[in-house]
Amino acid sequence: MISENLKHENSPMQLSGQGESLRRAVLGVGGSPRRNGNSDQTLIRMLKGVQEQDIRTKMVRLRDYYFMPCVGCERCRKDKICTGLNDGMQILYPEIINSMGLILVSPTHNYNITAWMKAFIDRLYCFYDFAGERPGPWSSRLAGRGRKAVIVSVSEQNTKKDAGFTLDAMRLPLEALGYEIIEEFPVFGIFEKGRVRKYPDVLDRAEALGRKLAASLI
Q: How far apart are alpha carbons 26 and 214 in whole angstroms?
């Protein structure tokens, strides 16, 4: 069974240097608004593969959390975490900080990731440090710590071109934050809710990718 809880010892405010220890854990984040749909089923199988390597997991379905998109208040530049909004992201920040691995799964909505996934990624802006001048150099407090990620898109379209920016919209921000993308997995040609269960090859690959991500963290 997928573990719904990861114990964490560090608060978000404690991510100030490179000395904190990371848990050998994987956070799986699903951006689909459909319960028990294709994205959910794919993420579950990926986390099953992670658990086979004795790596702890937590599954997050963004639709179950109330959180706002970034409002651009810039308070995080000073406070080093998002203090401008008090919502569900405050629950998720410690899980992000304390997990070495990350899985993002989003269906394709209008050539892109879902609004839930976009809002989640935008709220990771608080992990950047910026120089005073604009534009100027920047760095990520999540970088340099061996973090790994796998990204997955699920779409009814049959080609990467027709799926638009879905993978790019996850890969580029994670790379900027300091994650090494172990693999990207586009799932094509599936739309009806739960239909991915009829594609054992897709689910088997998802599970194998979970094992691959886990192995990279050992």
A: 8
Residue 162 CA to residue 18 CA, distance in Å, equals 41
Query: Which of these ranges, 4-8, 127-131, 213-217, has the smallest mean pLDDT?
Result: 4-8
Report strand pairing: 56-61 vs 128-130: unpaired
pTM over 0.85: yes
Question: Could you give all domains of the chain from N- to C-terminal order, each with its CATH number?
Answer: 35-217 (3.40.50.360)
- Concatenated DSSP letters of 147-203: -EEEEEEE-SSSSHHHHTTHHHHHHHHHHHHT-EEEEEEEE-S--STTGGGG-HHHH
Do the Cβ atoms of 54 and 60 come closer than 8 Å? no
First-last CA distance in the chain: 21
Q: What is the number of other CB atoms lying within 10 angstroms of the CB of residue 83? A: 15
